């Protein structure tokens, strides 16, 4: 900018000048236009001459700068000696000695960090701006530093003490205190809302994971950074009884308190449906209808899986969620891609269950998209990167969790929520393997089936060195479950005994899908007391339908710790 010669004119000056020229009526054309000559003469005679509008070139720059409400200062030369400050600057920070170096004359510019900026502007010849910086007077300003030429600096030095020659810098500060305070209040409100959502989210997640007998599990949750609203990621581990475990992870689409609230409702529903011991696809079918009722405009992805130690597999169903990854003891990673249905809340889809092997020594990972999804990167690339990280991740489930989080580059400023659930099926050896035993007997029916089952159970429990009282209770429970199956079930029938380091599990399967229920037998009834006896002597009992038809009825006894 040049303080003595501004080439631009005030807005509208040229148009007004042209308008004055156009309204002057020449003598030889009076009466020819749409306005009568007499009227034109009358207008010309009565209208006073328009006052001359001064151009920008004619305005005294010093007077203009003195009157602007913004703070203006001019420094000159390599030492930034003060050449000029306007009235607004004096009113804000007091009078200043012209000719002094800026560091001594304008100490208030040190806190906002303007002195390095003055050097940059003088060297580069380009303007620089610092937005919303707080000054020592407690107010916030946006500072713009603009280079000026020799003539600029000389003109701005009227009455000042700056030297001649060299390049100067004009400092222009606009008071933005109101905007800064409003932005601060908005940020505080957003932080408060985010803290509320994070608190709600964490309170709805399991505070402590259930610990299955046959699995080791760990999970972690990382909320998005301060600029990201909290999402609806969740996970859970649910022991189903009979040695089986349900594992679930999901992600509600959306952000904030609403997404966290929907997540809490879905997680509660999953736990309730899990107690019914249904197949994974039936659980998702129920969740799909519930999600539509909760909020028709919100959808969620979810994976629900069941681990049965007798089968050595994960049976799962997926509603639009990312695939489960399983690493075997040799480091080979397998991806469970199918089957996958649409997200929960879309309705009208029949979900199906699939399975993936989980042998001893293997590790499975369930996760949400925040772990693998990145901007400008294909989702499959993120999953492939997670597979590579998992193939080399060894140690406890918590160690694996932490390594996967680090390998994905998840930091406190990550732009999305991340939930990870890791489970391991440990390969037990030596003395530990003696605490996890299985025994099974095929029941062929007939009058000899019950005595054979009792004899088999007695021999197994004796070999497992159970105390006499637990041995007798186990044989009694076996007898009642087998008798119930013989009376109400159909072949094929099977008795299975299983022990872990915490409990003894007795299970009888048959081909009939009618589930027994506990009822009160009348004194005259000749049957109906078997399940009641089992429920009385066992720590827990239950029943479920098995894939392909049939049912399983089980009970368990908690072992006393040595």
Task: Kindly describe this structure.
- The chain has 16 helices and 21 strands.
- It is α+β, with helices and mostly antiparallel strands and 562 residues long.
- Strands 7, 8, 9, 10, 13 and 14 form a 6-stranded mixed β-sheet that branches. Strands 2-1-5-4-3 form a 5-stranded antiparallel β-sheet, with helices on both faces. Strands 6-16-15-11-12 form a 5-stranded antiparallel β-sheet, covered by helices on one side.
- Strand 3 and strand 4 (140-148) form a beta hairpin.
- The termini are far apart.
Distance between the termini: 89 Å
Quantity of strands, as a count: 21
Largest sheet: 6 strands, mixed
Proportion in helices: 25-40%
The outline comes out as elongated
Low-confidence stretches: 1-43, 152-165
Strand content: 25-35%
Mean pLDDT: 83
Total helical segments: 16
- Structure class: alpha+beta
Q: Report the radius of gyration as a whole number of Å.
A: 41 Å
């Amino acid at each position: 900018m040049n303080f003595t010669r501004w080439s631009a004119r005030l807005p509208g000056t040229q148009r007004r000048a042209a308008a004055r020229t156009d309204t002057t009526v020449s003598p030889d054309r009076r009466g020819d236009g749409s306005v009568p000559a007499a009227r034109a003469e009358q207008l010309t005679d009565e209208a006073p001459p328009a006052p001359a509008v001064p151009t920008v070139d004619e305005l005294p720059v010093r007077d203009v700068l003195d009157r602007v409400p913004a703070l203006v200062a001019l420094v000159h030369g390599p030492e930034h000696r003060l050449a000029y400050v306007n009235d607004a600057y004096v009113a804000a920070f007091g009078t200043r000695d012209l000719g002094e170096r800026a560091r001594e004359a304008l100490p208030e510019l040190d806190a906002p960090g303007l002195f390095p900026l003055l050097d940059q502007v003088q060297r580069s010849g380009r303007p620089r701006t610092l937005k919303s910086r707080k000054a020592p007077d407690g107010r916030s300003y946006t500072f713009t530093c603009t280079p000026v030429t020799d003539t600029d600096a000389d003109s701005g030095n009227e009455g000042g003490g700056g030297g001649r020659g060299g390049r100067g810098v004009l400092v222009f500060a606009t008071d933005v205190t109101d905007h800064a305070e409003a932005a601060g209040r908005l940020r505080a409100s957003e932080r408060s809302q985010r803290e509320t959502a994070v608190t709600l989210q964490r309170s709805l997640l399991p505070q402590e994971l259930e610990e299955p007998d046959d699995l080791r599990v760990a999970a972690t949750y990382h909320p998005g950074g301060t600029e990201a609203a909290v999402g609806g990621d969740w996970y859970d581990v649910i022991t189903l009884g009979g040695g089986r475990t349900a594992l679930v992870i999901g992600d509600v689409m959306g952000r904030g308190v609403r997404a966290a609230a929907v997540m809490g409702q879905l997680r509660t529903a999953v736990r309730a449906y899990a107690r019914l011991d249904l197949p994974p696809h039936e659980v998702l079918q129920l969740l799909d209808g519930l999600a539509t009722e909760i909020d028709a405009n919100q959808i969620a992805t979810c994976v629900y899986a069941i681990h049965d130690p007798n089968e050595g597999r994960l049976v799962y169903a997926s509603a639009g969620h990312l695939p489960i990854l399983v690493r075997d003891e040799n480091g080979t990673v397998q991806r469970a891609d199918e089957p996958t249905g649409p997200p929960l809340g879309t309705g009208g889809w029949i979900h199906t269950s699939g399975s993936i092997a989980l042998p001893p020594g293997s590790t499975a990972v369930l996760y949400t998209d925040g772990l693998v999804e990145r901007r400008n990167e294909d989702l499959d690339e993120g999953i492939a990167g997670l597979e590579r990280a998992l193939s080399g991740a060894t140690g406890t489930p918590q160690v694996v969790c932490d390594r996967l989080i680090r390998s994905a580059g998840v930091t406190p400023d990550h732009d999305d929520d991340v939930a990870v659930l890791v489970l391991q099926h440990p390969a037990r050896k030596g003395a530990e393997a003696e605490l996890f035993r299985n025994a099974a007997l095929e029941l062929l029916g007939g009058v000899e089936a019950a005595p054979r089952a009792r004899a088999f159970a007695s021999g197994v429990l004796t070999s497992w060195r159970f105390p006499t009282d637990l041995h007798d209770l186990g044989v009694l429970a076996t007898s009642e479950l087998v008798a119930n199956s013989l009376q109400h079930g159909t072949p094929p029938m099977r008795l299975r005994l299983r022990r872990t380091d915490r409990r003894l599990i007795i299970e009888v399967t048959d081909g009939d899908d009618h589930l027994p229920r506990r009822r009160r037998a009348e004194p005259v009834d000749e049957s109906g007391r078997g399940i009641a006896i089992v429920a009385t002597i066992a720590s827990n009992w239950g029943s479920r339908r098995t894939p392909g038809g049939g049912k399983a009825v089980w009970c368990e006894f908690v072992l006393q710790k040595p």
